[in-house]
Amino acid sequence: MRPSAARLLNILVPVKRAVDYAVKIRVNPQQTGIDLNVKHSMNPFDEIAVEEAVRLRERLKDAVQSIKVVTIGPPKAAETLRTALAMGADAAIHVELPDTAPAPEPLGVAKALRALVQKQNEEAEEGGKIDLVILGKQAIDDDAGQTGQMLAGLLGWGQATFASKVDVDPATNEAVVMREIDGGSEEIRCRLPLVVTTDLRLNEPRYASLPNIMKAKKKPLQKLAPADLGVDFTPLLETLKVTEPPTRVGGGKVANVDELVAKLKEAGFTAV
């Protein structure tokens, strides 16, 4: 039996639909962004976040009461939620945006997630409040790496970023997180509620099996509009132009140092 002092954990995992990591990125003809008419999938760092939430439940058993996933995006983003449900999440929330809407910026996403957490916690019964948010450290499309930190700041919660190991003890209401830092790693102890962002070394996400994919179709998926959360996703930044990087000029081989020096002089380089 679960000790009476143990806390029931309710985990929220934000996920993002992004261009698949294996797709070769190309700039669109208008040079306003990249070509989005390609394969999309769940952001790889968010896959790691879903996997870690499921593994926490496998380790902590009944101490984890629920795992909810949430995405903010167009109607097709529901496919990403179904993938997360097939991996083991219990329920999903889709903050739906029009197909023509620009991609929300990190601050807008963080504000929407804060509103969602507050809304869920206000409506939750005793023991049902969200006290752990796990999300990818960055999305591979914009590589901003800001949402988790902004969310922690807006909520006034602790944060453990770039996590490579997460241990949660519901009895003490604490988590011990190993973080990736320049030149190594550091271990920190945090109090719940907490925001954790996941790094690559944290785990290897499982593949969703066919039976679980079928079961995911029956799991609840709630749809919300931005107005339901009182948030505005109007961009604060304007992208002026997007271009391909310049084509690299091929190199050449030289037979000896004298030939190298001669070619450098021809190119206009001089000795200092």
Provide structural commentary:
Its cofactor is FAD; AMP. With about 270 residues, the protein is α/β, with parallel strands linked by helices. It has a single domain (about 10-245), classed as HUPs (Rossmann fold, 3-Layer(aba) Sandwich), CATH 3.40.50.620. The protein has helices at about 45-60, 80-85, 105-125, 145-155, 210-215, 225-230, 255-265; strands spanning about 10-15, 15-20, 40, 65-75, 90-95, 130-135, 160-170, 175-180, 185-190, 195-200, 220-225. Helix 2 links the parallel strand 4 (about 65-75) and strand 5. Helix 2 packs across helix 5 and helix 3 crosses helix 4. The termini are far apart.
What is the topology?
Elements: E1 9-14, E2 17-19, E3 40-42, H1 44-60, E4 64-73, H2 78-87, E5 91-96, H3 106-123, E6 132-136, H4 147-155, E7 158-169, E8 174-181, E9 184-191, E10 194-198, H5 210-216, E11 221-224, H6 226-229, H7 257-266
Parallel strand pairs: 1-4, 1-6, 4-5, 5-11, 6-10, 7-10
Antiparallel strand pairs: 2-3, 7-8, 8-9
Helix pairs in contact: 2-5, 3-4
What is the rounded distance between the termini? Answer: 76 Å
CA-based shape: globular
CATH superfamily: HUPs
**Unreliable runs, pLDDT <50, ≥5 residues?**
none
Query: What number of structural domains do the residues give?
Result: 1
Number of strands: 11
- The averaged pLDDT comes out at 90
- Secondary structure class reads alpha/beta
Portion in strands: 25-35%
CATH structural architecture: 3-Layer(aba) Sandwich
Domain Electron transfer flavoprotein alpha/beta-subunit N-terminal: 31-233
Family: Belongs to the ETF beta-subunit/FixA family.
GO molecular function, one term: electron transfer activity
Protein name: Probable electron transfer flavoprotein subunit beta
